[in-house]
Prior knowledge:
Layout: H1 3-10, H2 13-16, H3 18-35, H4 39-45, E1 47-48, E2 51-52, H5 53-68, H6 75-80, H7 82-107
Antiparallel strand pairs: 1-2
Amino acid sequence: MSENQSVSRRLSFLDRYLMVWIFLSMISGMLIVYLYPGIVLILDKMSVGTTNILIVIGLILMMYPPLAKVRHEKLPEVFSNIKVLLLSLIMNWIIGPVVMFLLAIILLPDIQ
């Protein structure tokens, strides 16, 4: 067995066919816009300034797991403990940013 075959076997199904999923997504997007041209107006309404919210959500969902080294097989275990999950979300998305904002106000009063 060659080196490439062993690496390919260790990849998950999604990772092994990533190029296929990317092309299928692009083709699907072009097909949807071609078949339903009015969807462009709906998608434009989902923007803040020049930033499309759907693209932001997609990028976060796509980039966060590899950066956080998420072990997908452990997700059911994580979501089974709602208290810990909610505490983690509150700490990371509410308390953390508020503390950082307050520190910025305290330590950087001359920067506006």
